[in-house]
Design brief:
Blueprint lengths: L12 E5 L6 E2 L2 E2 L3 H5 L1 H9 L3 E5 L16 H11 L3 E4 L6 H6 L8 E4 L13 H8 L4 E4 L10 H7 L4 E3 L1 H14 L6 E5 L4 H11 L5 E4 L4 H7 L3 E2 L9 H10 L4 E2 L3 E5 L8 E5 L2 E2 L4 E5 L1 H11 L4 E5 L12 H11 L5 E4 L2 H9 L8 E2 L3 H8 L5 H5 L2
Helix pairs in contact: 5-6, 9-10, 11-12
The structure holds adenosine monophosphate.
Length: 388
């Protein structure tokens, strides 16, 4: 990838694609991790004498302006973190009004364009939109790792039209995740959880030959248990993935570990009645909503001598405090490893580690859930390719 040191930016207007797709509630940014992660690139460009024009998407607007998807709440957070004024351009990013609003932006100044998904051409990678966006700048920097798996106008479209480079966050993410694929120090242990096997199957298949152990948790465990003939009651599972689960368990018998006990609930609710049962013997009418205490201990022990760890996806329905114990235990076990290279990707596992207060004890926390998984699936990311 081309990086910032390859790009001439002095007295240039540099268009920077960032990922400010942050959680917002009642007009207030709930987690500014992604804004914070964009600062090194912005500060460097400003120090080197560029005018910085930032663009991002937020949420999933339906191809036009929607107030709840405006980037206004991000402006305050960004200005506070940068300790500078940020010019907020409320017009659609590809409009003549936006171009006009930026016409007097000077070196050392920062502007933020409105949500780029208000432009119907963004997700279609419309060449006309890419051309109008590219006309706003003299050079382009991609620092939106969380969007690097999207071939959208503001990601790969603009890159094709301007001198370009990857920003520091892109560089850091690609290097950190690349280490998991290239030459991980062993033992290498991967923990996957989350709702469905089908969502993560490609990454599981790509990683299984490379890892020493794959610890499975969350809703996806029940498809594997059903596939080997266990009784899973009403637990979430995917019947169309049973054959695949069976095949993986045969082919990688020594590597795949499944929970042995679960916290079962008599219904899917915060105040359900619960009991700990073996995962193969969940009574009819009950469902497994978290890994049990014996599994937590076994997984922590399996992590103990690991030298490389990747974790994606919760071990249970962690949104309910009652079923968050397994996810919290894995967070603590990963954070507690000394001398291991530990990487966490995906929104839910990242919020679990943040809540645990131990995020600073993890080697790398990825800002991109989907992008990190696609990279580990072995796929070429359009954003990364565009920076080559
Ligand atoms: P993902 O986005 O695929 O990582 O899945 C995260 C979701 O999986 C969370 O919303 C969890 O509540 C859900 N989940 C985890 N374990 C279970 C389970 N045992 N039953 C139902 N849903 C689960």
């Amino acid at each position: 990838m081309k990086t910032l040191k390859d790009l001439e930016v002095k007295n240039k207007r540099v268009l920077v694609r960032v990922d400010y797709n942050v959680p917002i509630k009642d007009g207030v940014v709930q987690d500014a991790t992604r804004v914070d992660a964009s600062l090194p690139t912005i500060d460097t460009l400003l120090d080197e004498g560029a005018a910085v024009i930032l663009m991002s998407h937020l949420g999933r607007p339906k191809g036009g302006p929607e107030d709840k998807y405006r980037l206004a709440p991000v402006v305050e957070v960004l200005a506070a973190l940068l300790q500078r004024d940020v010019r907020y351009v409320r017009d659609n990013p590809g409009s003549p009004e936006a171009a006009e609003a930026l016409s007097d932006l000077k070196p050392g100044e920062v502007a933020l364009l409105e949500n780029v998904r208000f432009e119907p051409g963004e997700e279609k990678n419309d060449p006309e939109l890419a051309r109008r966006l590219a006309a706003l700048g003299d050079a382009f920097v991609l620092d939106a790792f969380g969007s690097a798996h999207r071939a959208h106008a503001s990601v790969s479209g603009v890159a094709a039209l301007l001198p370009h480079a990857a920003g520091f966050l892109m560089e850091k993410e690609v290097r950190a995740l690349g280490r998991l694929l290239e030459s991980p120090e062993r033992p290498y242990v991967v923990i996957v959880g989350g709702a469905k096997v089908s969502d993560k199957i490609k990454v599981i298949e790509n990683l299984l030959p490379r890892v020493d152990k794959l610890l499975i948790g969350g809703g996806m465990a029940y498809t594997f248990v059903k596939a080997r003939g266990g009784r899973i009651g009403e637990s979430i599972h995917e019947d169309d993935q049973l054959d695949l689960a069976r095949r993986l368990m045969e082919e990688f018998a020594g590597k795949i570990e499944l929970p042995t006990d679960v916290v079962a609930a008599d219904r899917f609710a915060e105040d359900a009645d619960t009991k700990v049962v073996p995962i193969d013997e969940i009574p009819d009418g009950w469902q497994g909503l978290d890994i049990g205490p014996a599994t937590r201990e076994r997984y922590a022990a399996a992590l103990q001598d690991a030298k490389t760890v990747f974790w994606n996806g919760p071990m249970g329905v962690f949104e309910f405090e009652k079923f968050a114990g397994g996810t919290n235990a894995v967070a603590a076990a990963v954070a507690g490893l000394e001398g291991a290279y530990t990487v966490i990707g995906g929104g839910d596992s990242v919020s679990a580690i943040n809540r645990s207060g131990q995020a600073d004890r993890v080697s790398h926390i990825s800002t991109g859930g989907g992008a990190s998984l696609e990279l580990l699936e072995g796929q070429a990311l359009p954003g990364v390719e565009a920076m080559k």
